[in-house]
Amino acid sequence: MVQLLKVHGSQNKFFILDQTELKTKLSQPELVALAKHITAPGNGLLDGADGLLVIDSSDHQDALGSMQVINTDGSIASMCGNGLRTVSRYLSDKFGKDAFKVETMDSDLDVHREADLADDVPTFSVEISPVSFAKENLPFDNLGTDTLINKEVPQFAPGLKFTAIAVPNPHLISFVDEETMHSKTLGQLGKMLNDPNDYFPDGVNVSFAQILDHNKLFVRTYERGVGFTNACGTGMSATSLAFCLNHPDVADFDEVISVYNPGGMVKTRVHSRDDTFSIDLIGNATFTHKIEIPDDDLHANNLDHAKITETGEQVAYLKFVEGLKSQTVK
Question: Is residue 235 a known part of a binding site?
């Protein structure tokens, strides 16, 4: 029997599969097929998820393991901040270490256990890097510029300014008012830029942000390969960097920024060193269910015999979210 986990970071939901625990590892086509099946809201498990996080061994120095992120449509994401927190907790529990590195597609990232955000809400900090503004790293084209930082793009949405940042997956960010935040603009723009288009050929994660106070934001994201999510960790990280760059009167480098989202809240810290940026993403790593599946069924992409057990951790997380409602969040 193989044990999977249903997990979430800020209600950004995933399944975790540890390949090192299998008698025979799943092939890449098997992993993609499993991801598309298990995350589907209709015929998947537990109302589906936003992706499958695949853990494997790593031979990189100080890395306890590697993480691959497979989206619901079978595409591969270069990074996932919310997912990395849950993988970090899994590896921390497995190996008994509180600070280490995790190998991701583009870099080995520092992670460590943090003080819990609330009672019984396990919390981890993960490094979000490398950061780039260069159009070839996003990539984008046909915008008449090599970088896009706080500029109007009328073909996207009249009157809005946009910033494009790779962390390393691509993000397009706009700071908006409350009316725009609750309009159809984000969904329309997100769909346009993730369907075949002339600007972002590989698609892009699109985030709208509303400034609530000094070092305080609300962020909503249309995620590439997924659609609307409760939260996007790299999206909130990239938005925090754009916040510090574009609104220095209300955002501070190296200070904690509270970032609210439809699924809860995370904290970020943005660092600038010698023209190089990195972000700390701090938030919950909640395990909601344990799932046991026979090895052969997993290879056959058969979920019919899965045995599911609740962990009880979601109760504490929902209590934490309920406490956020007393704070000023739009």
Answer: no
- Show the CA angle centred on residue 26, arms to residues 25 and 28, nearest 5°: 125
Name the residues annotated as catalytic: 80, 232
Same domain, 54 and 113: yes
What pTM, to 2 d.p., does this model score? 0.94
- Residue 66 and residue 181 share a domain: no
pLDDT means per 10 residues, the chain with 330 residues, are 96 98 97 98 94 98 98 95 98 98 96 97 97 97 97 97 97 98 97 98 98 98 94 97 98 98 96 95 98 97 97 97 72
24 contact partners, CB below 8 Å, separation of at least 6: 295, 299
| Pair 46, 167 in one domain | no
Question: Is 169 labelled a binding residue?
Answer: yes
CA distance 160 to 162: 7
Domain of 187?
135-284
Q: Could you give the number of structural domains in the chain? A: 2
Asked, for residue 129, whether it belongs to a domain, the answer is no
Q: Say whether 127 counts as a known binding-site residue.
A: no
